[in-house]
Amino acid sequence: MAKGLTWPMERIRDGLDRFYKENHRYPTATEFDECPYLPRAKTAERRFGGLVALRKQLNIGSEHDLRTGAHSSKRAHTINERAHILEKNVYELLCKQFGKEFVHREYFYTDDHRTRADFFVYDGKDGFCVDVFYASSLKNIGGCLNLKLAKYSQSDLLPYPIIFLQMNEDINQSELNELVQKKKRGLGQKQTLMSWKTFEEFYKSRKPLRVLRS
Asked: Fewer C-beta within 10 Å: the chain N or C terminus?
């Protein structure tokens, strides 16, 4: 059924049952929008007063609000664990390329010690900053990017590149470029949104900093 057509309650229930069988949990708002056999989240919100109200009406799941409780805790744990693994992998590769002493983790780039990047790398040029993130879909990148643009609002005053490194390898650089072009708020002059493949090419093209030892 097309997203724009009427959705009978039984068809929604069948769709939710199918999603649960396939994923062993019920869908989030984003997954409603992406799923071909469910209505858009806004459709459910208008008709039922929100996804929480819809779940209660259908009496599905022990937790109707997926933003709280065990589901939320499990999701947060999964995200944090994945972030830790991704950052560790990036750190090890950067250390291998540039040397451990030239790769700084959780680098504060403002004097107030409130804003920090995941990594700052000293290399043979001016150095560069890396902020690592993982987006489950292309749609979710926009929100992630808006947060990072606010975080790095003063980065145009800095002498080195800021790289927003998107680690979902199912999303390629062409898709990222198209997303950036469509954004009302563009990236700063020294800011770049990169896929992992593009970042590999970038950091391998940068020469390590050589230090003269006595």
From this structure: C
